[in-house]
Amino acid sequence: MTNYTTAAEAVKLIRPHSSVYIQGSTSIPETLVRAMTDRAAELTDVTVYTGFAVGRADAPYCRPEYKETFLVNSLFVGNNIRRWLADGYGQSIPAFLGEIPALFRSGALPVDVAILNVSRPNADGYCSYGVSADLAVSAVECAKTVIAQVNDAMPFSYGDALIHVSRIAAAVEVDEPLVELPTSVPNEVESRIGGYIAELIPDGATLQIGVGGIPNAVLAALGNHKHLGLHTEAMTDGVVPLIERGVIDNSQKKILPHKTLASLALGSRRLYDYMNYREDLEMRDVAWTNDPFRIRQNPKVMAINSAVEVDLTGQVCADSVGTRIISGVGGQHDFMYGGALSEGGKTFIAIPSITEKGQSKIKALLTPGAGVVTTRHMVQHIVTEYGVAFLKGKNLAQRAKALIAIAHPSAREELEKAACERFGYSFLRLK
């Protein structure tokens, strides 16, 4: 590979009035991003696309002095740009994560430059995107120019997430550790929720599982299950012990049996080391992993996701607190739909009954401005530490009753009053 250079030289390929995709997950190419930001005085009107990402700190281009230079359009609001958007300097683009690659490929969101964080090349000259195939695959496919930091710390993963060195216009050698997310140890509430969900997961199921304490609690409760599969958007540390013990063997899946499939990974160094050169693990374009009609081909898909709040009819808000966007739709809808269509599939929204501030997460009405990520027409199981509410096929009054039964006891009286006012006799007769 002869096109190694400095970060300062590499980012000179970025021109004013261009659009730049920055790779995400736990692999933000920070050396190149800093160098791009250092060129702010020479740039103007540069559109920045970001997806799901976990940064060590706020993105350097998110500073008031750069507001005319870098125009942030987020496809999933990560922690490193959240404050910038909340202050009105950037915007998010609502879209199902699985459909964003089509926006790149159609030219609706043109990509001039893609900035990557990749592994060392293999013997055939291919570098791997490692932990972040997701939007990077399509962005690179469409980009006129690819700039990469070739990182000793990046695992080599198979699947779609490969690029030949000849496609990289400029490369910078780095040894930059990936962001590590400590494995969330489930608390008592999360463990109870995880236990309820695990009881409803049959042997031979295909899992899609999110990030955090509740998903880890579900995984921890699956130790005695058999022949589970993994076809997910995000892979975390919690799946590794189940794979190593043979609980997840991917033997019952219809889509690439005997292979673990994900679109991105985030966790500890242990996870990243586990991923390195594993031929039974593939990282795929998110348009592929999150296609509901591909997901549904697997039997017994179990889609397990979380939410900010749920109303008494089953509307699920997962991307905002009121009007403030805090994340994105991500793949929740993709897997809730695919899981619902799967033979024997089940879908779950798992939430603690109250917030850390003691406010009920089951609401009479969603907070004004809150966005609906999963509609009441699609929702199946809502799970709190007080049990499971199965809403599919239930009318609105029946849903209200089922949700009140799993709400925090301190909120139930107020929720019952709201349900009486809203649904009248049809609710009262259920009591």
The rounded Rg comes to 22 Å
Structural class of the secondary structure composition? alpha/beta
The level of helicity is: 25-40%
Give the number of helices: 15
Residues in β-strands, percent: 15-25%
> What's the overall average pLDDT, rounded?
94
Fold-level CATH name of the largest domain: Glutaconate Coenzyme A-transferase
Please, how many domains?
2
The biggest beta sheet is recorded as: 7 strands, parallel
Overall geometry comes to globular
CATH class label of the largest domain:
Alpha Beta
Biggest sheet: strands side by side, in what order?
A: 4-3-2-1-5-7-10
The beta-strand count equals: 25
CATH architecture name of the largest domain: 3-Layer(aba) Sandwich
The N- and C-terminal alpha carbons lie at a distance of: 72 Å
Looking at CATH, the homologous superfamily of the largest domain is Acetyl-CoA hydrolase/transferase C-terminal domain
Which regions have little confidence, pLDDT < 50, spanning 5+ residues? none
Describe this structure in words.
With 431 residues, the protein is an alpha/beta fold. It folds into two domains: 7-174, 3-Layer(aba) Sandwich (Glutaconate Coenzyme A-transferase), CATH 3.40.1080.10; 188-428, Glutaconate Coenzyme A-transferase (3-Layer(aba) Sandwich), CATH 3.40.1080. It has 15 helices and 25 strands. The protein has helices at residues 7-10, 30-38, 82-86, 100-106, 136-142, 188-199, 213-220, 239-244, 269-275, 286-289, 292-295, 332-341, 396-406, 409-423, 425-428, and strands at 19-22, 46-50, 70-74, 91-92, 113-118, 126-128, 145-151, 158-159, 162-164, 170-174, 206-209, 229-230, 234-235, 260-262, 264-265, 281-283, 301-305, 309-311, 316-317, 320-321, 324-325, 346-350, 362-363, 381-384, 387-390. The strands form seven sheets. Strands 4-3-2-1-5-7-10 form a seven-stranded parallel beta sheet, with helices on both faces. It has a six-stranded mixed beta sheet with strand order 12-11-17-22-24-25, sandwiched between helices. The mean pLDDT is 94.
